[in-house]
TrEMBL record:
Organism: Steccherinum ochraceum
Protein name from the UniProt record: OTU domain-containing protein
OTU domain span: 110-265
High-level lineage: Eukaryota, Fungi, Dikarya, Basidiomycota, Agaricomycotina
Alphabetized GO MF terms: cysteine-type deubiquitinase activity
Coiled-coil regions, chain positions: none
Amino acid sequence: MAGSKRNKIKNILSPVTSPPPPVPPEDDELMDDLFAQLDSKDQNVQAESAAVINEMQQDSKSRHKARQARKAAALAEQHAPSDAEADARIERETAEEKRVISETCDELGVQMHEIPPDGHCLYSAIADQLNLLGILPDAAANYTTVRHVAADYIFTHPDDFLPFLPSTTGEDGTGATDSGLMSPQQFEGYCKTVRDTGAWGGEPEIMALTRAYRVPIHVVQGTKPNVVEHNPNEGAPPDSALVVRISYHRRMYGLGEHYNSLRPKHGIANTIKSLLHS
């Protein structure tokens, strides 16, 4: 009898172990949405999406919280008042951007090569171009390689980039009370973000890559000027006939700003590669 009581007490006091709850199937869709939001140029959207992704990878409560937040956002969007005039304006701007970029591509003899909108679009587009020009081999022609090069160049040339980077506590930061540049810790964190996350890339990273690879990067866009030229040596003509060409889209993609690679038409890309490697 005593043994039986001890067993009952043991069973009551022993922690109940249960298998971990299964990961809901909608998590995959949620993660896709969050990674897509990393492609936004809005740094607040990037930071919030990255934080939720990190939390989701750690525990189920955060996954539930993220799903609830997404449902709330979707509900708010459904009940948001429709602005027909604003919708029409965006539609016109989208059509105009598409027309201008298409005409510019025709003039340059290039065609758009779609890049996935996953936060790495700038780096993937430039990697595709560098591979086309014979600068990067197939095995290294990916966003990881290009991100590392951009981050390392920025980190080793702080004086060239600090004036153009947003400060989290200075005049560019939310609720800022003073002006100023990034601290060394913030600058190191920025470079780490460029290297290791899916954060959107922009002008500072393009400037770093054109100098690191010593090749001009031309950006075709829907506003004036239709082609923005970034050269390795500011104010000096490039010392190479090779040019990286990418397109920048503000309206054509619903998830926000995006970059694509611009390849030569009619199989010229393969001809260029064969000539470079001959």
